[in-house]
Amino acid sequence: MQGLRLITPVTMIVGAGLMAGLLTLAVAPFVQAQTSTQSDQARKAYEDHLRRMDEAEKAAAAKAAAPKSTPMASPPAMQKGAAPAPAAKPMMSASDQDAATERGLEQYRRMLKADPWDNPALLDSDRGEALWSAKKGPQNVSLAETCDLGKGVGKVDGAFAELPRYFDDADRVQDAETRALWCMERFQGFESAAFRKSPHPSGGQPVKDIGAIATFIANKSSGMKVASKTDHPKEKEAIALGEALFFRRQGPFDFSCATCHAESGKRIRLQPLPFLSEPKEAKQVVGEWPAYRVSSTHVMTMQHRLLDCYWQMRLHRLDFASDVSVALSAYLYDRARDGEIAAPGLKR
Amino acid sequence: MTKTVILVAACAAMMCGSASAQDAKVDPLQVDVMMKFAFSQAPKDWGGRTDQDETLKVCSAARNQPSSTQADAIMAREKAKIKYPEDGKLMGDWKKGEAVAQSGYGQRYTDYPPRSPNGGNCYACHQMTTAEVSYGTVGPSLLEYGKIRKFAEADTKAVYDKIYNAHAAFPCSLMPRFGSNNVLSIDQIKDLVALVMSPESPVNK
User: Fold this and answer.
1) Closest by Cα among B106, B40, B112 to A325
2) Ranges of chain B whose pLDDT falls below 70
3) Which chain A residue is nearest to residue B65, measuring alpha carbons?
4) Cα A270 to the chain's mean position, in Å?
5) Model-level pTM?
6) How many CB atoms lie within 10 A of CB A68?
7) Are A112 and A81 within 8 A, CB to CB?
8) Separation between Cα atoms, residue B141 and residue A266, nearest integer Å
9) Quick one: which of A108, A293, B10, B117 has the most CB atoms within 10 Å?
């Protein structure tokens, strides 16, 4: 068991943990159907998961005592509130439907977050580190020897926590992905037109190279606090523009970001919606991106996540590194200020 | 000494360390232009999707909390946009309405060319029947909506109006203007009205 975990930490645990998670999600809607079989199944799946977590913890303790092989990526910080919750009891009253559904969802979320090593996104973080260090492009240089993320050329530790920020050389506020693209164009000599046309993976495809690099950069600030820069007038401006964009209604459905994300405790279907203009809630979720998304089985970056929201709002593909995506990021990270970075996160 | 005092005062006023959006004034035109140029892959006939009509401009600026003057203007403007069925019948088939309420299909860039009619996706935000447990809570529950109102004709019309153009009754409502924005047809809206108001509908069982 311990040996297996060392050899294939991600595949094995994900296989078991996420399958159980998906089972619970599939079961959750039926909890209030009051068939004890179904809620028993959900509870059993969750208890099995807790047991596996206990075993994994013991294994980790044993491993700590033994000589260890250091992995390339560090696990995202353990989430607050990730402690196991008591399993849901079957609900007997129809008036408790919401509570029962919510409990099922909460179990699923906890299972997703319970063990940071479950996260397949760590593979992409490793890939991103390799890409960051490799000599590439027409200029045959690495980003590690050319790219300044704000803390000095090649310095990655803690850089993500201070993004987005204003960069003199680009004369623009840039987030991690925008900056990575800029460096690849400027220093490595890459032509970005083709990339900009299709910057994000389709369902099932791995995150593209810049996304992997962003995942690596984010992971190197994991455990730190969101501290995006607000000194430069353009940084302040980006945040203010992002706020205006957040509340701007448009498209055939008259939607804005605020349609779904400006109130606490709401859901779309069964999906809970964070109140993103409220710092308390923004702090809990914004620092988890880039995140592995179970429903699309790949890492989704913040740029991709924003595009996904505009897709849902019935607008077209949001341009990668556009002023809109950078300003919205600046606003969201400002809302999430002092929240913990736990990237890459793990999402439904 | 004076300098320090001024600095401290300036800091307090600007809430140093936490960037507040009030620090920078936003020109709405700049935001419009940003949106205009942020979707370069959109087909030409999508250009208008980033535009705002007067109602959306007011609601966006007011964060969906319009003043009473603004609210009156919105209600009057949006009410005038509501079109009614030629035969005057506001209720269609609740079974078809249920399908429209379930479907979230339509008008995303991945939905072209259209493979089925647009949906209303009512369940995304509203609880409607006890059978469908996967419902959202952004809008109020509509369970027994018609029954509670004794299936009154005036309420049937009000439901039609709300689906066609919610701002006519609730200025700056979060709900899409399904009729005015040509998301749903008049027949689809009639089917939804039946789903909400018909005594046979599972909404009212």
Assistant:
1) B40
2) 1-24
3) A247
4) 19
5) 0.79
6) 10
7) no
8) 12
9) A108
Is any Cβ of chain B less than 8 angstroms from the Cβ of A247?
Answer: yes
Cα distance between residue A85 and residue A114, in whole Å: 11
Q: Which of A247, A269, A323 sits opposite B38 (nearest CB)?
A: A323
The per-residue pLDDT for range B27-82, each reduced to its tens digit, is 999 999 999 999 999 999 998 999 999 999 999 999 999 999 999 999 999 999 99
Using the beta-carbon criterion (under 8 Å), do B18 and A230 form an inter-chain contact? yes
Q: Which of the 8 DSSP states describes residue B3?
A: H
User: Is residue A74's pLDDT more than 60?
Assistant: no
Query: Which of A254, A256, A310 lies closest to B181 in space, CA to CA?
Result: A254
Q: Is the peptide bond before B113 cis (omega within 30 degrees of 0)?
A: yes
A240 interfacial to chain B (CB closer than 8 Å): yes
Q: Between chains, do A239 and B21 touch, taking CB under 8 Å as contact?
A: yes
Measured in Å, how far apart are chain A's first and last C-alpha atoms? 27
Q: SS3 for A136?
A: strand
Helical H segments across chain A, by residue range: 2-7, 9-27, 36-65, 97-113, 121-133, 176-186, 193-197, 209-219, 233-246, 257-261, 279-285, 302-312, 323-335
DSSP SS3 for A266: strand
Task: Please list, in sequence order, all residues whose beta carbon lies within 8 angstroms of the beta carbon of residue A244, skipping any fewer than 6 positions away.
Answer: B21, B26, B28, B31, B60
